[in-house]
Amino acid sequence: MENSDVEKTHAPLARRKGGIRTMPFVIANEAFEKIASFGLLPNMILYLTIEYHFDAATGTSILFIWLAISNFMPILGAFLSDSYLGRFIVICMATIVSLMGLIVLWLTAILKQARPPSCDPSKGNCIKPNAGQIALLFTSFVLMSIGAGGIRPCSLAFGADQFENPENPNNERIMQSFFGWYYASVGLSLMISLTVIVYIQNEYGWIVGFGVPVGLMLVSAIVFFFGTNLYIKVTPSKSLFTGFAQVIAAARKNKHVDFPLKDSDGCYYRGNDSKLVAPTRRLRFLNKACIIQNPQKELNPDGSASDPWSLCTIQQVEQLKSLIKVLPMWSTGIVIAITISQHSFPVLQANTFNRHFIGKFSIPAASFGLFGILTLTLWIAIYDRILVPYLTKYTKDPRGIPVKYRIGIGLLISCLSTTVSALVEKKRRSRALEEGLAELPHAVVNMTAMWIVPQYCLSGLGEAFNAIGQIEYYYSQFPNNMASIAVALFALGMAVANLIASLIVKIVDDCSKKGGKESWVSTNLNKGHYDYYWWILTMLSVGNVFYYIIISYFYGNFEEEKVWNEDDDENIKDGNGAIIETAKSKDSPKNLAIN
Fold this sequence. Notes:
595 residues, mainly alpha, three-stranded antiparallel β-sheet, 3 strands, 2% strand, transmembrane, transmembrane transporter activity, POT_fam
């Protein structure tokens, strides 16, 4: 028998590894990593503005770029794990890198030399950080982003590897149990991050507040490594991203090749055990990637392509087409992702409200994001358990409200969320000026912080409708082996949104302070005009609603699922509505003809 790193098999001997006993290690690793990493973001804008003397616009832009990198890196991590290193190695490396990043950030709080000297912002005597201090801070951000890029795309899939065993009649129940515990741990981790970790940072300072995540990440690493000998470690295979690149390269290389006069079996390269005999006609130029010109030269004796960069399978071509097809719909989610990613300014806003809740207890400014998460969670539970059975009777859709409408409703609610944010900020600013607090940026306005709860709740509700609808739409358009692409697309949308959000803040800051005027996104909220900033986001959101209407109109009924399962023997349709017919008992019992 080979070592534990051989390709996963369902033989009885291989099942000595993995199974239910690995669940505590995998879930504990994910839970502690989530608490450690997500516990830093809510208060980070305060750390940058108070300790590093960045203005609000610069600090927010830095955090947007950090988030963008953190959302881009999982795509690279997924590629490395699927193609070269395997999930176990990537998680191990990423865990260590994340721990290093957290330690570096902790050092910026411990070492006084790592930060500018303390000052009174109201006196205007604050010294900006030097190049070395900025480099140390940014190093911690980059290391944490690299670590997140390895852990986030691999953790769930690695856990599923431990339990997947088709020979076990209880496999489906076991997998469902694992996914349930996994997502429960993620939700609990986020809540702990927004409450316990934020509270520790506020009450005990940055040294303790950053030290706790370091300790949690260290525990996460130890727990994960402790179960090393128990894990099933799947050997990496060819990545889908490599397949996409091969299709593009082959189509470009074969651009002068003529299309066959008739799509028939033998004209296109099917690969081994594939039922598809011809590609669809949409994006027809990509079909040249799978045209067989010289079988003796292009195919090996076993039927495989001698050069996969010159000849691809029909399945590869159709997978790339399905990805290209969803891109316009994917683009409609960028603006709402910008509004969802507004973590910094709301924290600064909450910091100026009266946050006393019961007695002397004061809700941390960074903990108000919990209202959004609770709204999202409660809505999902109510919708799935109560509303779907009722709505299905009227919509005839097993999912209740069709995906197209859920995505659109989420966009509309997002518009309402930014509108409420603008109105509340206008009210807060007016009250601050009436109370003579214009020159006191950190003064507390005589308004309860409950004023900002509705905007968080609306943001969470909009995300529940739109984000889940997006992912569900991607899943309906992709084959099973592209499920990871659905999640990657959503992360990519968040990354692009973070970059655009950073650009918006930069443009608003530069344009509004021309002529010596106070910036709309000034560090002093009472002098700035954050209500104008929210109105800009509202206008973008409204424009995006009309853009979505246009895109969805041209898409028509994009609820239709595309069935890719090679083992299904039933009539299905492609993205153009063309019938993919089954021939169970005809000349080619395993072939499907695409008309």
